[in-house]
């Protein structure tokens, strides 16, 4: 699964880790996160994330 980076603060969403503090379990693909989820560091929405080229 692909990682995504916040274009504002550079937080990296890693599907292997999820975002447990926001109720997103490990193993959740970025595409499967609810649309109202926001960056845990700066609060922007999913639209401000870009795929990480690995």
From TrEMBL:
Cofactor(s) in the UniProt record: Fe(3+)
Domain Rubredoxin-like: 1-52
Assigned keywords, A-Z: Electron transport, Iron, Metal-binding, Transport
Cofactor: record remark: Binds 1 Fe(3+) ion per subunit.
Binding site for Fe cation: 6, 9, 39, 42
Pfam families: Rubredoxin
Family annotation (InterPro entries): Rubredoxin, Rubredoxin-like_dom, Rubredoxin_dom, Rubredoxin_ET, Rubredoxin_Fe_BS
Molecular function terms from GO: electron transfer activity; iron ion binding
Gene Ontology BP, a term: alkane catabolic process
Record family assignment: Belongs to the rubredoxin family.
Name listed for the protein in its UniProt record: Rubredoxin
Protein species of origin: Duncaniella freteri
């Amino acid at each position: 699964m692909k990682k995504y980076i916040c274009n504002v603060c550079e937080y990296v969403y890693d599907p292997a880790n999820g975002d447990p503090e926001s109720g997103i379990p490990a193993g959740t693909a970025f595409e499967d996160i609810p649309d109202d989820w926001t960056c845990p560091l700066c609060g922007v929405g999913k639209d401000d994330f870009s795929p990480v080229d690995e």
